[in-house]
Design goal:
heterodimer, A: about 200 residues, alpha/beta, Beta Polymerase, domain 2, 2 domains, 5-stranded mixed sheet, two-stranded parallel sheet, B: alpha/beta, Rossmann fold, 5-stranded parallel sheet, 6 helices, globular
């Protein structure tokens, strides 16, 4: 049913709809990020689409797999017409710079915190967002933790850790987890390891 | 509980009727005895272990038996800080501040694996054990620990208070004879291979 939405999008925006994809009732359109806000407004206001419910917006990092590195994914639903659509836009250079896209908060207010979270975790900048701050991490945090090039074992403590010389078994320096976390301590001893 | 020991050589006689008497003890021992049965607690509950904490504080397991029934939601009035659940890096300053606000004497109990060592959270946001931030007296591992294990931890803490030691303690798993098989009663068919 919502395949019709993809057709309408194709008619209206032509080559700015880069790809479409339909499977198992999920309909996806990859669109030109430059017209992101315009397409969102159209989807909300056009009576054939009537996407009055914003479901989700997030980002995916395809480091080393595609050239615009991030994919911003938005899910929309129409409560009136009972259909849904997924929009994607590809942004960002290989080094993570220029990951910018228009904010859709002016279209759906509910997008506010979702965009803040995507900014917090991936560093995708939403232009025109009313209050683009970190949502989950603390302001002192440097970098974006869900990017694929953020080291999996890197921590940035807010308070200085106590020196705990001998912890009781089963907790050791690796906290009982031989597969990870041993690296934390030596990372903190690196020059500038606290600040990074 | 290990606190009903009598000093060697002393004879204990129960007073009867209208008899009066007195008992002698060391002041420290008396104070420690009073402290260990009047632990006012501050529950710092952040995650799913809180459910188990509620189970333990409720009548079925009844923490009040050990004199630890009064929660105080101001750290200034509390003696025992329960850190129940995962502590994130962002919460660490708050936890440290709560600890510093508590008046001496104060004790800390790490409830559950996450508070003890970070548990399975090996990532950018979790503190791998609250002893990296504040000194801990008793660790109660488990995900979540059973209420019995938590009571073991509380008794271990009381024992530590009575002995006046601040060495960190850890609750060991209970050894169940039935599980170990020593006293296991075998049901069903007889084992024919046995002589």
């Amino acid at each position: 049913m919502s395949k019709r939405v993809l057709e309408i999008l194709g008619e209206r925006f032509g080559h700015d709809v880069l790809e479409t994809h339909s499977q198992f009732g999920d309909d996806t359109a990859v669109v030109n990020p430059a017209r992101w806000l315009e397409i969102a407004t159209f989807l909300r206001d056009d009576s054939r689409c009537a996407m009055n419910m914003f479901v989700d917006i997030t980002a995916v990092d395809y480091l080393g797999r595609q050239t615009p590195r991030f994919e911003v994914v938005m899910h929309l639903r129409s409560l009136e017409r009972g259909h849904r659509v997924r929009l994607k836009a590809r942004v960002g250079d290989e080094d993570g710079q220029n990951a910018e896209i228009d904010s859709v908060v002016s279209v759906w207010k509910g997008a506010n915190w979702f965009e803040r979270e995507a900014f917090d975790m991936f560093g995708v900048v939403f232009r025109g967002h009313p209050d683009l701050r970190r949502l989950l991490m603390y302001p002192e945090f440097v970098g974006y933790p869900l990017r694929k090039d953020y080291p999996a074992d890197k921590i940035q403590p807010l308070v200085e850790f106590r020196n705990v010389p001998g912890k009781l078994p089963p907790f050791g320096p690796d906290e009982g987890m031989s597969f990870g976390r041993q690296t934390h301590d030596y990372r903190r001893d690196e020059p500038g390891g606290e600040a990074n | 509980m290990g606190d009903m020991t009598t000093t060697p050589g002393s004879s204990v006689r129960v007073l009867e009727g209208s008899e009066t008497g007195f008992a002698t003890t060391k002041l420290d021992a008396l104070l420690n005895w009073a402290k260990k049965y009047s632990l006012f607690q501050y529950p710092f509950v952040t995650a799913c272990c809180g459910m188990e904490f509620m189970a333990m504080a409720s009548p079925r397991f009844d923490m009040a038996r050990f004199g630890a029934e009064a929660p105080r939601f101001s750290p200034r009035q509390a003696d025992l800080l329960w850190v129940v659940g995962t502590i994130s890096q962002r919460q660490a300053p708050a936890l440290r501040r709560i600890y510093e606000q508590m008046a001496d004497p104060k004790w800390v109990l790490a409830f559950g694996t996450c508070a003890s060592c970070g548990g399975f959270y090996d990532n950018y946001t979790t503190v791998a054990g609250i002893d990296k931030i504040i000194p801990v007296d008793v660790f109660v591992p488990g995900c979540p620990p059973r209420p019995e294990a938590v009571l073991d931890g509380l008794l271990l803490l009381q024992d530590k208070i009575a002995r006046g030691t601040r060495e960190p303690g850890i609750v060991k798993p209970r050894r169940d004879a039935a599980v170990l098989g020593a006293n296991l009663v075998k049901l069903g068919k007889k084992d024919k291979a046995a002589p």
